[in-house]
Records
---
Amino acid sequence: MPRDQFRLLMQEFHRAEEPDKVGQLASPVILLPYDATGALMPVAHVVMNTPTGITLVCHVAVAANNQEMRHAALGSPVRLKRSRTGRLEIVGLDKRAPGTLYNYTLNLSTAVMTSGNVSALTTRVVNLGELASVTSVGFGQTPLAAVAMYDASSNVVTIVWPGGV
Amino acid sequence: MRTLAPALATVMLSPQRQPAWQVLAYDVLSSGAPTMSAIIAGSATSAFQLNLTPYVHGGVTVEEPGDKRAAHITFTVSDHLGSFDPASGTYATYMQQHQVVHITAGDTTVPTSQYVGLFLGHVRGQVGFTIDRQALRYETTLSCYNRRAVPRYLKRRFTSQSYGNAVDFATICLDVARQEMSLSGTELTRFPGVLGQLTQFSTNTIADLSPLEALDKILEALGLVCDFDGDGRLRVYSRDLRRAPDKVFANLNLIASIEHPQADTETYNSVKIIGLDKNITELEQPEQALARATIPVGFWRPMHTVDVWWSNDRSLRARHTVLSIESSVNNSLILGLGTESYTETSEYGGRISIGIIGFLLSLIALIGVTLLAGAYLPDALNLTAVQTISVGRVIQSLTIQLALMTVATQSSGVYEVRGVPILPVFQEISATLTVDGTPDYLVNQKEITNDWVSTQEHLLALALVELIFEVAQSSPRNVSLVDDLTLEVGDMIQIPLGAAPLRLWVESLRRTMTRDQVPLLDITGFKVPEGAF
């Protein structure tokens, strides 16, 4: 079999065999009115590693058979399953979490690598000392126990809880 | 790269080559048959060996496709007696599936013992047999694949023993080869004893992988690939294109043709490596109630110490724990003399101590003083009733009632310990390496997930090897040259071509050996980017 055909096949094979994805809970699990009738669905925000970097995915549905997830704490690593059409669901707790992503470029003529941005998103409860500074408004804007996403330099990227789209 | 015997190496350099090859079949299925290890070591008895060379019709084609695919040969043997009829021929035993075929090559001027192995593998599938009465032909066709296609190596999954910290990857690979592939002795002489990369976790286990999957995954972390050589020995070759060429051709005398084929393969220009951080990350969860305790105290137990744990199995860890008093022991005491304290004894629990000794001692002292004072008080005189009143005894009796109340004193406190539970998790680390200047919309990224990669430095080193390897595939080359018995898949050759030499990574090889001619070796490979060396 020609090599390029073989490689295409192998790519398809790997796609089919793609393992579950890992993520990290960025919010508590809540019940969200999910359809037009207001039926409630347990959902949570999740931070996950995607080809474009570490990304926040909001309101990911929790699989029906996972009552343990209802009590999962913020920051818990979770396992995600992607449907063939690209919809995610949280299927359970996991032991590995997405971490730091280092981006580099390579100059082929010199074989020299150049360091790019470092992508590392963590989510945690905003502590009392930070409440005044996460927004320009100061105290009162961000509620106590709000959850924020932080970058590799521990700067707040966004408040992910309460809220999320 | 194969090492040739000195005499054969000398002949290879001379223009008077008289190429020769032989095809040996081994019976490994009969009772008393030699093991693969014995065949590879050259110690198999001749009783189970058959030299098929004189009967080979039209030559032998050896294909080594590389890229973790098994080498393959097809050849035909025939004689006028039908000796190779797999059903009833004299040599039918050797014409069965799973028997072993070994192809060696050399020169007629050197002994066959110095020939170099080009292929060793098993007969696979049904052996073909043709009787053509018009052409008076008895032909048997065999198709063989090398040990990379052995079912046990490819498919039988295993779970390894657990390896500790700082174990060289080669140790694990060799254990897999010995225990799961039953390789030993000569079969492992080409596998390195040290790979220079150590395990990072205190426990490392390979679970539910086939032996070749396991070896490929471990070696992938080092930019290596495993394969079997022409003598059936396990070996590794490197995908690192920055290394020096294995063979440098001084001129084009031995090169028959060089082709830049048109290729529409979409090659990768970016690589993403995902590994597992060698440091366990301890995630701090939101502060929450870890333990509650209701603790009673009284006169007969004025001090009470209770150990509390964050989980029943005492395995949950927490930090920054504090005592929250929901109901104080002083709520039912006067003067607030009860004491309450909390100590974090470990990450798994703490100790709550409450006491009312101060309160009790104060009361006892007060009682004692009052009784004594009562004894010294003079009686009062009631002139109307002409009687005396013992004021001191009245006070003493009231004091005794107070003492009795003290003895019956009981209180209790309700406490909650709050803290931040710790969740140990494996944190992924990843690195992307992209060819400089590639527009975002043209990035074609290859993703490799390998838990044997555990540090940023390791990620980058592997990403560099893989990206140069992938980029090189956009420049495929086909080269034909006079057969060079030293070349193997994974070798790098350098050919003088124009201003800059052509460095070619050998991805696959094909040679057809017929009688009385020097075979051509067809190499499919790709040009190493100039910047890589």
---
Amino acid sequence: MIVFWLLALALVASAVFVITAKKPVYSVVGLLANFTALAIMYLTLSAEFLAVIQIVVYSGAILVLFVFVIALLSSGVAPFLVGPDRLPAAAGGGTIAALIGLALVVFGITQHPATIGPAGGAAPVGPVGTAGAFGSVADFGNALFTVYLLPFEITALILMVAVVAVILLAGDTGPSIQQRLRRKREPIVRDPAFDAAMHRGEPSSERAS
Amino acid sequence: MSETSLPVALINYIGLSAVLFFIGVAGVIVRRNPLIMLMSIELMWNAANLLFLAFARVWVNNAGHIFAFLVITVAAAEAAIGLAIVVVAFRRAKYVDVDEAALMKG
Amino acid sequence: MGVEGAYPLLIALWLLPMASAIALWAFGPQLRTAAGPIGAGIVGVCFALALFSWPDAVQRAHGALGAHLTLFSWGSGFDFGLLWDPLSLTWTLIITGVGFLIITYAIGYMEGDGAYARFFAYMTFFIFAMLTLVLSDNFVGLLVGWGGVGLASFFLIGFYIDRKTAVAAARKAFVINVVGDVGLMFAILVIVTQVGSTTYAETFARLGQFSNTALVLACVGIFIGCAAKSAQVPLHSWLPDAMEGPTPVSALIHAATMVTAGVYLIARCWPMWNASPDARDLAGSIGGLTALMGAILGCAQWDIKRILAYSTMSQIGYMVMGVGVGAYDAGVLHFLTHAFFKAQLFLGAGLVIHALANEQDVRKMGGLRTKMPFAFWAMLVGVLAICGIPPFSGFFSKDAVIYGALEHGHPYLYAIGVLTAAITAYYMFRLILVTFFGTYRGEVDPSDLGIRHPELAGMPPHAAPQAHHSHQPGPIMNVPVAILMIPTTAFGWLAIGPDSPWERFFGQLFAGGTHVEKVPASIGEGLSTLIVLALVLVGIGLAYLRYGTSAAREHAVERLRTESVHMPPVLANAFYFDAAIDALFVRPAQALGRFMGRVVDPIVIDGAVREAAIVAVSLGNRFRMLQGGLVRGYALTIVVGVICVIAYYAVMGAGR
């Protein structure tokens, strides 16, 4: 139990640090701390596989992506923020909105306690590390590739779409399509040595070199 | 099958998730740096994940794990695309300030 | 009521004047001077048709009198048709006969006028409307004719469109007549609610169905219409101003026919009148009052046509009094004789006016007896008739009316009638003496005669390039006047005694109906006649003393000036009726109009429209702020929406 409260404290503190840090790099570090605490929390919830996935994908891939982009953007000399704050009401308004939402959720939860949910036909719960226990790799894989195969495939599709989108958006900094169309067709320059090398061994042709 | 399998009562997980979620909301609205905004959105995703896993543990139901997995995947895709947009915008304007991207005004 | 059948002559009689009016309207510029004879000819043909149809009017079959022609019917009880019985025959003969003579006269009178054809188009249109009024067999047709004659009167009073006073007089006449129209319409509505029909036959047959108040209301409504159209107090003030129209118009419309439409209406509704003593009291009293007032005001006028106008008002008061108290034959007889002698008087006055280049003020006349003898004799005959001197026709009819009032139980009205006869004699002889005796005062300076506004006198013929020169009228104007002298003189002999031709002709209208009881009169008819005659002679004597003695004739100019200057303002302003109407109705209406124009229209109506626009614009501005283009703003909006959803579920609970 104390673990939970410590982890909760870490989560909240790092989250607040993320949103209030001065530099983006600080935010990334805070986010890393947040994800790590979350992974430990998942472990306490018998979700071992997901804890590992959290570290591998979130901290290992997404945060690294963030760091790369920050590095890319920081390489310029322009500061991050130019121009005045155009919506000064957002600061106060956002905070208040968040607090109201929080209050409402808490109120709602206390009014209507959760009911018992459906049983899922999962493996029984066991101590962490038990093979085939609830939340283990085997259990997770079993569900993923049988009952939830379709969502899995769709997720693959989503990832492909993301890859294509990123390449289209941010890749290829060459001339734009219009520019390429406008560029005159360059004359094909024939290289006689190359041609000779290509056609070595063929019956001699009457083509002039 | 009962809440006693959790370290603490379920309500605490729900409250923690809500707090994390709304911290993320505040971050999206208050900060002007798009990178920070995207990170706040990641916070929100994670809050939802936490809630999924908590309920999965209470009801011993795999679906929560599956769904949390899918959430992580989609969050990754979204982060990638979002960052790509930020990069493209930076190439154009040489700075990133969300408030300046007000072409859709009116 | 009446024998059903097809009467093509009646249809022709009714519609020919309309066809003529349309033709003259449409082809006026091409016809030019031919318009006059065409108009007169058509009306003459109508007169002949009416004469030929005389037997149909007095035929009696199945116990009903006259001829009935149904034209079409809208629904049960709302048939529209023509009724041809002695009453409508009487009016038709006067309308077409006297109308023919007057329109012929007008061919000469309106000669040289720029809108010659338009005049005759209007006159024939008037004939058509008046015929519609008297020939209808239902109240709605009557109302249509009623409105039509009002319209024709408006056209003809305002015929000289360049003259502001004429236009104002036309408007005044029309507006006052509208009051009467409303009263008449109200009466028709009451009748429809009581018996569900508008035809005379059904209404009078079912009089028993009327409740008492409904009957009184209907009679009052009818009488309001009659009062407006026939210039009874208090709706009389349009008639003197209506003299702005050309003299033939005054003769035909405002003397002989249109103003008697009210008398016709009361006579037509005699069953209703017989059944309601309150209505009789009202009609008789107003008639008597009008007769007296008209006579008193006639003593104070200097315009020859206005003198005649007030005398018309007074004589119609007699007629209304006659038919109002229930003496229908006396009242209608007076209508007949009045049509003759009043037309004669107006046409004679027209001869004088025409000869003197549109001078109408009697103060500037004088001594015309030697210059225009024919006009003098014509007007003398008319004046003797109107005063009720035997053997002229007016004597018989006026006596019948006055004695009828006494017979039907109204001694006060009898006294008023007698007094009015005396005053009538006075001012009519004043007219004759000042106009035709003494020396001609046309060259005298107007202010010496006490004339305050010389520019208002006379009627410039519009669009005539040169001033009308003074000349003696030709035969086309003299012959109709001469013809009119005959009935003016002789018609009365047809009505002597209870079994006279007139009684036999007209009395059959009332056969089978209830009569108003006659009370035994306190004095015999012969004695009453003598009393009236004596007072008439007193009136003539007074007029002679004031205007006719040699001393009066010598000092005419000073006497006239003195009288003009010392005219009591009460009389000069016609008992302040015009001022009262102006203060009570005209000014408030104008103030209301100004208020609407200055306050309501710009502030309320325009303001409402502008406010709608302003609200739309400001709402749009508010909503525009939502589209700020800022990402964070949109995010905030989304979050607010999410919170609303959360709030809903937090309160209501999920799963509902």
